[in-house]
Amino acid sequence: MTEQEFRKKLAENLVKYRKLNGLTQQELAECLSYSDKSVSKWERAEGVPDVFVLLRIAEVYGVGVAELIGETGESKETAALIKAQEKNEKAKDRAKKKALERAQKRKKKEQKKK
To answer: 88: which of 21, 52, 57, 111 lies 20 to 30 Å off by Cα?
Structure first.
């Protein structure tokens, strides 16, 4: 693995785990006593946090450093969390679609009354 590939994989995982844990870059930065600019830089693969910070990030997310850097696959817990989040997103999308359809039907009924 080249350094650039390593940075990219780490960046992808940092974004994935931050979102899975429902944190913003600012919130993660506060947990680590870093700036949100640092977190953004790491997530864009423009930099890499030092080993101590990687350990702290792994603790925040409840994963191992190996999982963060892509050396191991996702744990069963992480895979289940991702699956649940995807299911939740699909449910939200369906609900939005239904709400939009109902609003369009109401609008058509109101237009017919006029």
So the answer is: 57
